[in-house]
């Protein structure tokens, strides 16, 4: 009889753990012990505590990715705060589908499926801005302009108006740069037929890709600005640039953000990165353990629901062998890790 009671008590405890929704789980306070976890102990803890996403231990990847983040202070920059403050809370009267994928909606725009690799540079602010701009340029032209916008152009030429280059920058600065000065065409490292391809090669091993060498233990220096295109490209830099017509922030409301994506294309955002994010492998990410490390800028391309958990579909810039083929899914609707609080977009 005692054994039966113990078994029943175990079942009740286990049931209480498993019935928590992702939103409830995310709202739970994380113990100081869990916050201090790192390495394999953190990964084991994450996989034991929840079933929303799967973590995978890869020490080399973790250390390299830490060098690609931005500093939290950048969110307090006046220009960043101003664009967020101007975002209006709109009333959405149209129906929004339960799931949406920009890759399927605009198949004529190859940039939406293009996963970049920022390498050992904290250029996510420029890379994800270039991704989003490329998508919107194609979408707003009904698929006639498939130019890949150059992340290197913004990274190297925007200057202090965009922050600190490879040491982290301002996503909103990149958008205003595109509006005021224009951005030229770009592409992968060493890609021909474009004005300014990405300046840094992918570092480390990536399945099915050329190996350029291990990742250095330091962040690359911000490249110098060049007002000309690479040799052999048959167009002048000034003539190659495209301009954003309008730049704006979106109010931190999932319906407002979804409506903008559905009508105009992917958006750029930034979120707070914790130690457990580096080890993400698949599923819907919900912060579970580890300390905060900084900020990361990315591109949201859609949304969906899995087992009752609402998520954003997000394109990362850590190559195609990270996460779900370069993408990840992130808890939606509760501004988890501030992902809905710093959304930017523009018109072309």
Automatic annotation (TrEMBL):
Residues 96-347 form the Peptidase C1A papain C-terminal domain. One of its GO terms (molecular function) is cysteine-type peptidase activity. Pfam families: Peptidase_C1 (PF00112). Keywords: Disulfide bond, Glycoprotein, Hydrolase, Protease, Signal, Thiol protease, Zymogen. It comes from the Eukaryota. Expression of the protease correlates with blood-feeding and suggests a role for the protease in blood digestion. Belongs to the peptidase C1 family. PANTHER family: CYSTEINE PROTEASE FAMILY C1-RELATED (PTHR12411). This is Pept_C1 domain-containing protein. It comes from Haemonchus contortus (Barber pole worm).
